[in-house]
Every structure is written in C-alpha cells, then in structure tokens.
Design brief:
With about 525 residues, this protein is of the alpha/beta class. The chain has three domains: about 1-170, 2-Layer Sandwich (Ribosomal Protein S5, domain 2), CATH 3.30.230; about 185-430, 3-Layer(aba) Sandwich (Rossmann fold), CATH 3.40.50; about 440-513, Orthogonal Bundle (Helicase, Ruva Protein, domain 3). It is about 35% helix and about 15% strand. The protein contains 21 helices and 18 strands. The chain has helices spanning about 40, 45-55, 80-90, 120-130, 145, 160-170, 180-185, 200-215, 230-235, 245-255, 280-285, 295-300, 315-325, 370-375, 380-385, 400, 410-425, 440-450, 455-465, 470-485, 495-500, and strands at about 1-10, 15-25, 30-35, 60-70, 105, 110, 115, 135-140, 155, 220, 270-275, 285, 290-295, 305, 330, 335-340, 345-350, 390. The chain has a five-stranded parallel β-sheet. Helix 5 (about 145) links the parallel strand 8 and strand 9 (about 155). Helix 2 (about 45-55) packs across helix 3 and helix 20 packs across helix 21 (about 495-500). The longest helix has 18 residues, at about 410-425. The model has no long low-confidence stretch (mean pLDDT about 90). The structure holds adenosine-5'-triphosphate and magnesium ion (MG). Adenosine-5'-triphosphate (ATP) binds near residues 199 and 222.
Amino acid sequence: MMVKTFGSAVYGVEAITISVEVNVMPGKFYYIVGLPDNAVKESIQRVESAIKTNEYFMPRTKLVVNLAPADIKKSGSAFDLAIAIGTLGATEQLHHPERLADYIIMGELNLDGTIQPIKGALPIAITARKEGFKGLILPKQNSREAGMVNNLNVYGVSHMNEVIEFFRDENSLQPIIVDTRDEFFNAQSDFDIDFSDVKGQKNIKRALEIAAAGGHNAILIGPPGAGKTMLAKRLPTILPPLSLQEALETTKIHSVAGKLPENATLISKRPFRSPHHTISDVALVGGGGIPQPGEISLAHNGVLFLDELPEFKRTVLEVMRQPMEERRVSISRAKVAVDFPTSFMLIASMNPCPCGFYNHPEKECTCPPGGVQKYLNKVSGPLLDRIDLHVEVTPVAFSELSSQENGEDSSSIRTRVIRAREIQAERYKDHPGIYSNAQISSKMLKEICVIDIVSQNLLKAAMNKLNLSARAYDRILKVSRTIADLSQSAAIKPEHIAEAIQYRSLDREGWAG
Ligand SMILES: Nc1ncnc2c1ncn2[C@@H]1O[C@H](COP(=O)(O)OP(=O)(O)OP(=O)(O)O)[C@@H](O)[C@H]1O
Ligand SMILES: [Mg+2]
C-alpha cells in the first residue's frame, strides 16, 4: 500500500513543504529517492532500528521512499520520523493512515525511537499554517518555538510511539498553547547588565548613546583593561526594544541555525554577537552545502561586536563589507541561492598599537616608529570607512572606580535614544528601507544635513587644523545630524558639529603620524 505524509525542508529562512511518499511492493531492498543527501540516506537505518526496537516490523519486500519535489536537495536527519510513520502506514501497522496527509511530521530518530530536536521549527510552522495543514508534529524541544504560530495545531512529541498512538486516537496528544506576547513584552527590558555598572566614562557612554540613536557603527580604541568590552556589551540595553516583526525575523534566523535554546519562543532582546577573531569567513557571513546563517545574520537587528579588530584576518573582514552595505547576504551554491538578512550595528574594539599604550595619558608607548600605523593598517580601509564613530577609551582613575556613585542607568539613556529614533522615522518615512541617519547615502546627505555658514567655517577650520581626511567630512555631518536629533533640534548647530568632530580620531593625520 502507498501512503503519503509531509515533511519540510528549510532554505534560508523559509521552509518548503516536502511530500514523503512510502510504498511497499514486490522486490528487494530499501530506497530513498528525491535528491537526498547522505544523512537522509542513512535515515533508513535509524528508521529500521526504531521500528524493530518497538516491536513493529520492517517489510521484507521492496520499500521506496520518495521525497518530492525531487529538484530540491533534502538534507539532515529531520525526515526520519515522517519516513518511519510513513513506513508503518504503508505496511498497515498504523491506524487511520488516511490522516497522514493532514500533517507535517518532523524529527530525528534515535535507534530506540526517541526523538531529537530539529533546526528551523519556526519557519516550518509558518509554512505549515500558510498551506493550511491541520497540524505539525515535531520534537517536544521545538514545540514552543513552533507553537508561537497561531491557527496551527502544534504537537510536541518525545517518542515515535506517541505519534503512532496519535493516529489511533486523535485526543492522545494536546496541541501546545504558547502566549508569546506577554512573555515577549515582559522580557524586553529585563537585562542583567546595565550602563550604571560602568563607573565614570561619561564621554564614552555619550558616544555609545549617539551610536545607538543614529544606528552608527563605532570603534572603541584603548589600552587593555580600559573597559571596552564591558561598554560594548551594554549597547543592546540602550537600543530601542525589538518590534514584534523584528523579533520574528531574528528568531527565524536563530531557529534555522539551531541556536535557539530548548523550549525557547520569540527572542525578546536584540542579539549581541561577539565572534572570536579566529573565526572563518563561512562562520562569519554564512555558507555551507545547505547554506546556514553566519554571525552577521545571527546579529540581525542587534549588535555585532568584533573585539580586537586588527586580529581578524583581513580576508574575513573583506567578505563582510557587501552584506553590511546591503543589509543582506546572498549565498549561492550549485543548486540553491538563499538570502539571509544582516542588518546589524557594528561595534569594534582595538588597542591603539601592539603595546596598547599609544596616546595613553600617563603611560609611555614602547612601539617602534611606524608600529602604530602598521597596526592600524591591519584593518581594512573600506571597513574603517563604514565606521562613523571613533571613540578613544582611557581607563578610569582608581578614585572613580572605587567611588560609590552610580552613573546613569540604561533605561534613561534608552528613553532619549528612542526619542531620537522617532524623529528619524518621521524624517525618513518616504524613504523605504531607511530608518536611521547612519543609513543615508551621500546624495541624501546633501539634502538632509544642511549646515549654516558658521558651522561650515567651523568644520573647514577643524578639517585643516586636524588634517582630517576627506572621508571624515560626510561622517561628521551624519553624526552631527544624530546629535541634533538627540537634543531635538531641527537644525544642525555649530555645537553639534563640534562634538561630531571629536569622533574621528583615526582620520587625524596626527594619529600614528
Ligand atoms: N569604568 C569601569 N567601571 C567599572 N569597572 C570597570 C571599568 N573599566 C574597567 N572595569 C573593570 O575592568 C575589567 C576589564 O575591562 P574590559 O575587559 O572591558 O577591558 P577591555 O578594554 O576590553 O580590555 P582588553 O583590551 O584587555 O580586552 C572589567 O571587567 C571591569 O570589571
Ligand atoms: Mg576586551
């Protein structure tokens, strides 16, 4: 007898329904057809073991499993459960096999019939609902993630026998009910770190507030132990909370990558990703036979922190440039091309030089002549070009570190950031895809960042005095627009320009000169 049930294959952040047909007929051997990879081909071994261990039988005749459409590559072990249940249906060991076609069934089998979690449960559930399936049966560990999708019955199971029983008696399993909304909104402002943990460093906090307000990339430059990592980690606490839409996008990516914790639902906080500098380009931007998202996509709608930027391989940083610009990355392989979103804020950190003490107020830099410039040159120029704010971090004095006084907390800073973002949302409402000052093109810059003659003269004088390079000019204008937005000023004023000029350390000819 032939039966049909359904599984799902994940490409990029979308899932495509795959029909799983199982037939038994005269002949010998078991076959899986329809472009399966090795893990799918091995599936039959796990299925056979699970079926026999639970005292059902495998056919002694020919068994054919067809995964369709055949032109889509199927990968991994997540089709095991559908194949096993289909096999039981085809060999008349399952009640109501006609109900099989109403469900998508996903899960990896252990040899004893227990079930392992899968990747991509959220996109699978979204597709299942869109296509009007009656239900989705999947591993218990993924059921809350899939259960976020409304109007779809999601059943979490931990053993093959529960699925067999479900086809005998529909009431043996209850669909999971997840109320994500409350959970989501409650968790949004619940951080275990805060800017008030950082003593002193008022000017650095101010710079990060500007970065957050305008969506600007920033680099923190300073000696070891100055607090760069500590400061960067706290950036998500002052960014505007994720919208439901953003949360869904980010959660989908983490779901596909298999990075959601067990029983997770919507990600409620902006991600903060800090890959180590030994990371490969595939791990950073994404890739693989069946393309998987990389760190730049896992950081989507959040922060990518590249600690010790000059230690990263230049080639690795180069591949990041285009996705940074386009806010998505396209990965093509022989059979497939998939897109992952990559809209993130880049925060980098670096020591100013190999010894770490160049420009230090008290300590002497011991690097050889030219050493500082050589160190900076390790960072790709075009990447530096995409960083609006250069922030020099010096360690706080002991007296400040030991003081009891707490700095401003994250939620007060966040309130100002949100206000500045609202001004930008209004300004860019007719420019689809643009939400913040950091994103505007140099053409738009000319219309949006108009400055009066006093500011122009100030900027000209500063450019000459500090020997700023031409690329600094646009950056200063953009950043001054954000500073004006933070002080709710419609016009960019000289004081806004003056503050923005301070954030171009690395462009100064004096730097490393
Ligand atoms: N302003 C500060 N307030 C409170 N603690 C601080 C401050 N600055 C530094 N610290 C303490 O010093 C530790 C080291 O800081 P952190 O690791 O952030 O430095 P870093 O600049 O990243 O150094 P490295 O270059 O070695 O990575 C922090 O974990 C924190 O405990
Ligand atoms: Mg550090």
